[in-house]
Amino acid sequence: MEKRDSGKSDRAASGDGSGSPAWLPASVGSARRRGAADAAALHSGDAWGSLLNSLRRAGDFLHGTQLPPGGEADASGYRHLLVLLALGIDEALRSGDPYEPIIAPGNVDNVLKWGMDCPDALYVGSAVRGDATYRVRGQRGSVRYLGFQVMGGIESTANLVADDLEIDEDGRFELLLSAEEQPGNWMALTERSSSLVVRQFFYDWDTEVPAQLEIECLKRPPPAKSVSIGGADEGSGTARQLMALGEFIEESLRFWWDIEEMGRSEGLNAFREPAARTDMGGAAENVTVWGSWELADDEALVIEVTPPTALYWSVALGNQWWESVDYAAHQSSLNGHQAVLDQDGVFRAVVAHRDPGIANWLDPGGNRRGPMIFRWVRADGAAPVPATRAVPLGDLDRALPGGTRRMSPPDRASVLARRRAAVSRRFGR
């Protein structure tokens, strides 16, 4: 793992004061209200120059000696820079006023990918504050997993699964968020609360319907005490966000590179022990098992696991920047509804650059290496660690049981067509 630059700013090392570290997209939005830059930095061009210098350093990192050369590696790196720029700009332009909340789509979707986003997910949410009281009204929909999470910066502070809510026969419910405990459906806020994150995981992409949600602020402190939400004047706020945008791009680029390099140092084509990373934004009920893969053109990776009974489970491939592989154009992920189990109850998947004719093929989409992640949500018992075997592609038939489900090219084409249509419906872009 590359040694970090000790000359980085304190903000980049420890966050912006709101609990959002500089590698997190939310740091760009919150920078408007925090930091030392003022309108003079905007007028002089110093803030803009800071952003350009950060972009230059990020580009230098991409063609450094630590990265593998090659067309697909170069393309994925520079495309990832565009993704980070888009994510940061989106954060800067959103108002995000927690006293005028709105349930809005997350900026991570099927185009803007970050932090090994889940291919089954639709992320939505709202800014919140611990000194206010909120009511969320909703219609449950039919997504397999609907989870609510209160965040304090990057750390998860409260989790609730919709299946545990009091919901009427029409699927409607109300959920209160406040510092004081409330009867019925309730989530706790603290002085550190900064956002409500809602995860909707689809199992059957063709038929499941997302929840319909809205939020309102029922109680807030007097305007004189909440003026800091408006924060800086327009010039100062914009200057701070320009500088924060550059820091976010640099820090996020290096952060996920370092994470993947750390994983690779612990072994390739293998999974590690399960963890619920609530300290890094994970939901408490969502246990993940992470591994790193790397395959040559003539290799295949066989993954085997007996799935426990779970509310939801899935496996997905990513690239070296921790973006999920394009799951609309490639079967780069499978969930418990899409996967085929063998007669012995074992899920066997094959990662390979060419379609091996196996139903549970995981397609890297032209990438040569990256993370692979199982997600186990409310699994019955301990989350299992899948077994793996790297084999020559020509020996794959001998490595799999005779009854392993196959898939013909026409059937594969049909599956991919349905995936593209479902992802288009989910995101509308």
CATH architecture of the largest domain: Sandwich
Give the ordered list of helices and strands. Answer: HHHHHEEEEEEEEEHEEEEEEEEEHH
Report mean pLDDT, rounded to a whole number: 91
Question: What is the helix content?
Answer: 25-40%
Q: Order of strands across the widest beta sheet?
A: 1-2-8-4-5
| Strand residue percentage | 25-35%
Q: Which structural class is indicated by helix and strand composition?
A: alpha+beta
Anisotropy-based shape: globular
CATH class of the largest domain: Mainly Beta
| N-to-C CA distance | 37 Å
Overall radius of gyration: 22 Å
Primary descriptors:
429 residues; alpha+beta; Jelly Rolls; 8 helices
Plain-language structure description:
By secondary structure, this protein is an alpha+beta fold. The protein has three domains: 1-94 and 232-257, no CATH class; 98-229, Jelly Rolls; 266-427, Sandwich (Jelly Rolls). Helix content is 26%, strand content 26%. It contains eight helices and 18 strands. The strands form four sheets. Strands 1-2-8-4-5 form a five-stranded antiparallel beta sheet, with no helix packed on it. A five-stranded antiparallel beta sheet has the order 10-11-17-13-14, with helices on one face. A hairpin with a 2-residue loop joins strand 4 (145-152) and strand 5 (155-161).
